[in-house]
Amino acid sequence: MVETIFDLPVEKQIFYAVLGFSWTVYLWEAYLSYRQRRIYRTTTHVPQELGKIMDSETFEKSRLYQLDKSNFSFWSGLYSETEGTLILLLGGIPFLWAVAGSVTARFGFGPEYEITQSLVFLTLATLFSAITGLPWSLYNTFVIEEKHGFNQQTLGFFLKDAVKKFAVTQCILLPVTSLLLYIIKIGGDYFFIYAWLFTLVVSLVLVTIYADYIAPLFDKFTPLPDGELKTDIEAMAKSISFPLTKIYVVEGSKRSSHSNAYFYGFFKNKRIVLFDTLLEDYSPLNKAGESQPEQPESDETSSESKAKPKNKKQGCNNPEILAVLGHELGHWKLGHTVKNIVISQMNSFLCFSLFAVLIGRKELFVAFGFDDSQPTLIGLMIIFQFIFSPYNEVLSFCLTVLSRRFEFQADAFARAMGKASELYSALIKLNKDNLGFPVADWLFSMWHYSHPPLLERLRALGNTKQD
Fold first, then answer.
1. Contact criterion met (CB below 8 Å) for 370 and 378
2. What tens digit of pLDDT does each residue of 148-185 get?
3. Nearest 10 degrees: CA dihedral of 397, 399, 405, 408?
4. Strands 221-223 and 261-264, bridge-based pairing
5. What's the CA gap between 326 and 457, in Å, rounded?
6. Are 413 and 339 in contact (CB under 8 A)?
7. Could you tell me if 220 and 250 are in contact, meaning their C-beta atoms sit under 8 angstroms apart?
8. For residue 20, which of 35, 33, 36, 8 has the smallest C-alpha distance?
9. 77 and 29 in contact (C-beta within 8 Å)?
10. pLDDT tens across 368-378, in order?
11. 355 vs 192, 378, 412, 458, CA distance in Å?
12. CB 423 within 8 A of CB 461
């Protein structure tokens, strides 16, 4: 008689269902990536529709860059899925929990000090993840990004940055986790409400302090100098009642030549951050290509970054920057930021409510090798990471669809401000600067793209023509 999965004990059914779903998602993602790689390999000439937007040299550079990234993603994804499977099959989670217990025992903490053991477990788990992920990160930065002209870091800067990131992460993660576990322990029947409120407060605090206290640990932020650009940004913010208090330029060129811009802050205290690589007049990557007398560099600058000459201007001119910011401010004016926060917190509350229902089910712990104990941290990991994984996939897809809708609305907002032509040319420039490939498989883009493909955005902006 053939035994099926439904004839197994319930804990075995849970384990194999989790493993099976994980591989199903991986194979689906691999299939989508295969479809997109086929586009990269076969689309070797600029399509007629893109003839006025992208030259053949840039098109070929972006094709090869995205092909390299896709191939790298395939191998790193396969490794990650294999590693996760081996950890589950070989009992890696209960093994690491036991190691954490033996560490705490050496310092006189018994099994009753579950939160202490949980913090040691979390430290060991994140350390393992950082070590196993380091070779992939090194290859991505110093082979792929270097090959295509984006990397600006030296090895020393990269390693120092990695250590700093790990240390800062632990300084935030460990206290927050210990307080969360304590709240769950003492919260009684309504602990899930208190846990949700705690995570809400933490997320709001982190968003508030990130750019002022955390990001400056890694990058240099300087106020945008007085001048035409600053005056125009302030005037535009005032015209839509955006409570702008400060404008910063971040030295992103020390890491990469990719560009970005964002705003942050709550209530009447909003700040705008512009990457120096976004600003045509400020990007050191442009200045590196100009024929100027050589200037002596400080030891710190020469050892941490390596600005490379460019054959073209990087970034956008002032009117285009205003158009990009018009798009970003559109997200604020149209309530996209608030809507995303509300959706996130509704999801968080739902997950904590379901966690409260499931945390008492012993078979969930037994399924992953915890026969004699039910640690709260392990319960959080099992339920949020494994049991909720089908729900998380559906939610992720829905949020991707919503994000694309928001992007179209923000583009329309910038157009209504009279900046359609400037946004049109800015999108083309940013696509070239970042070597974005403008041709996408419809299924891959539908599943993955949080921003609409370039051509769709340009069509939506209307028949505006670039000079």
1. yes
2. 999 999 999 999 999 999 999 999 999 999 999 999 99
3. -100
4. unpaired
5. 15
6. no
7. yes
8. 8
9. yes
10. 999 989 999 99
11. 8, 12, 40, 44
12. yes
Instruction: Count the Cβ atoms, other than its own, within 10 Å of residue 43.
Output: 15
User: The pTM is what?
Assistant: 0.86
Residue 456 annotated among the catalytic residues of the structure: no
Residues 167 and 179 sit within 8 Å (Cβ to Cβ): no
Catalytic site residue from 81, 280, 328, 393: 328
Number of C-beta neighbours around residue 64 at 10 A: 15
Give the closest residue to 325 by CA, choosing from 221, 247, 383, 213: 247
Report the 10 Å Cβ neighbour count for 21.
Answer: 15
Q: Given the structure tokens 């970005």, which residue do they identify?
A: 260
CB atoms within 10 A of CB 302: 11
Give the N- to C-terminal CA distance of the chain in Å, as an integer.
75
Q: What is the pLDDT of residues 223-269, one digit of tens each?
A: 999 999 999 999 999 999 999 988 999 988 888 888 888 888 777 77
Which one, of 23, 10, 166, lies nearest residue 84 by Cα? 23
Maximum distance among all alpha carbons in the chain? 84
